[in-house]
């Protein structure tokens, strides 16, 4: 809402998430999502666009953008990455969340919504927001994409390795904005921000001191203001 007077904002739900369909034959791998989003960008004829990614939106957005670098105006990244998992925390998270007990919890108990969203926000989302999250993942049949994501932290190594090579070369000269939740348990600023800074020399960093992982829930106004200040 805060950006729509200045920007044409497009926020698609990935297949298997939100209000998008859950096609049975779709792979729900990161490369699959990047292909679909890339086709969507091409269908809309976007040129001179800003790409913003948080969590898996970083690798997906970067995979789309390295193939369309001449059409990218700038990059906004928050609490994300685009290289192979290189910390014990990420590797262990992938293995634990890919285990049968946790896969059962994700699919049958809606673990991501009921546990990780509250844990990943400094201020728990209100009842209306939580009900929306529950409604779009209402049954086990709605959750195959959610269950796949933690597996991809390790399984998507080839794609992430390509991004680690290609992003600095193809996108590194773009103006960038980093909006970072400083209380994030997943993408701590210490390990992540130096690599971000090195990749995008022309960057502005906005620290979000009271935000955890889900910065869009904890600091939406601060993020919007930073985008306007940098690119508006």
From TrEMBL:
Keywords: Hydrolase
A GO MF label: epoxide hydrolase activity
Residue ranges annotated for the AB hydrolase-1 domain, each copy included: 4-220
InterPro entries named in the record: AB_hydrolase_1, AB_hydrolase_fold, Epox_hydrolase-like, Haloalkane_dehalogenase
Pfam families the record matches: Abhydrolase_1
Keyword Ligase listed: no
Domain of life of the organism encoding this protein: Bacteria
Name listed for the protein in its UniProt record: Alpha/beta hydrolase fold family protein
């Amino acid at each position: 809402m805060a950006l729509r007077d200045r920007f044409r904002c497009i926020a698609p739900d990935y297949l298997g998430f939100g209000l998008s369909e859950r096609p049975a034959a779709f792979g729900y791998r990161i490369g699959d999502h990047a292909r679909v989003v890339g086709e969507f960008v091409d269908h809309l004829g976007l040129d001179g666009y800003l790409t913003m990614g948080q969590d898996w939106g970083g690798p997906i957005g970067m995979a789309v953008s390295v193939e369309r670098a001449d059409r990218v105006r700038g990059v906004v990244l928050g609490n994300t990455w685009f290289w192979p998992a290189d910390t014990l925390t990420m590797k262990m998270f992938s293995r634990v969340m890919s285990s049968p007990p946790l896969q059962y919890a994700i699919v049958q108990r809606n673990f991501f919504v009921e546990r990780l969203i509250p844990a990943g926000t400094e201020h728990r989302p209100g009842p209306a927001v939580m009900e929306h999250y529950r409604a779009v993942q209402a049954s086990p049949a709605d959750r195959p994409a959610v269950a796949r994501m933690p597996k991809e932290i390790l399984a998507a190594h080839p794609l992430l390795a390509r991004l680690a090579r290609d992003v600095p070369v193809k996108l590194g000269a773009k103006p960038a904005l980093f909006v970072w939740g400083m209380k994030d348990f997943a993408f701590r600023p210490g390990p992540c921000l130096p690599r971000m800074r090195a990749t995008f020399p022309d960057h502005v960093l906005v620290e979000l001191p009271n935000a955890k992982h889900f910065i869009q829930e904890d600091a939406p106004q601060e993020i919007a203001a930073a985008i306007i200040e940098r690119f508006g």
